[in-house]
Design goal:
238 residues, mainly alpha, Endonuclease Iii, domain 2, Endonuclease III, domain 1, 3 domains
Length: 238
Amino acid sequence: MTKTKTVAQKIDERLRKAYPNAKCTLDFANPLELLIATILAAQCTDERVNMVTPALFRAYPGAAAFAGADAAELEEAIRSTGFYHNKAKSVIQCCKMLVEKHGGQVPRNMEALTALSGVGRKTANVILGNAFGIPGIVVDTHVRRLSQRMGLTKNDDPDKIEMDLRGQVPEKDWTDFSHRIVFHGRTVCLAKKPNCPGCLVNDLCPSAAVFHPELATFIPDARKAKKAKRTADDEDSG
């Protein structure tokens, strides 16, 4: 018997066709470069990070170089990514730990990665999925927003959202699912003005009718919500 597909799987199937080349948009040549780039990408666009990292990686070719970096010089090199003081501190401390505990190499498991300075589950999943091919769901601002709008989670905590999504998408698709959701969030399901009429999954998304009431007639959850409200109103009037 064929297992019934989850809403998340149905959404992912459509997004796969819409964004066949969705991938990590940070430029990197090895796991360490991706780790550093991901730390710098906090509260910053990937495009801006990609403008900074070529010269940065030439100046600091390896974990030992970053670990021994002068904080002021590193801050200046990454200034345009924002929050440069904290980011420089995280990069230096993280790389010191890599040198001291991992021989300068980026570890390949969640526990060791999240033990590094400045590395949480989101960053760890970026590294695992894109540098090592180990599936991971990255809950960034786009994945958080869209998974809530699409009714795939009721949680607000990124770690809980990750666990919710892990149960709805096959493990082999976790990394690419994250990329496709991010691409959709950047191009269609925008934070302030989502293009629900032009969205290829609007019939699966209960929020589409919230932003665009005219779509309610063909969104099942919206019809149910409307019917439930009408019933409640009738009972109140009676």
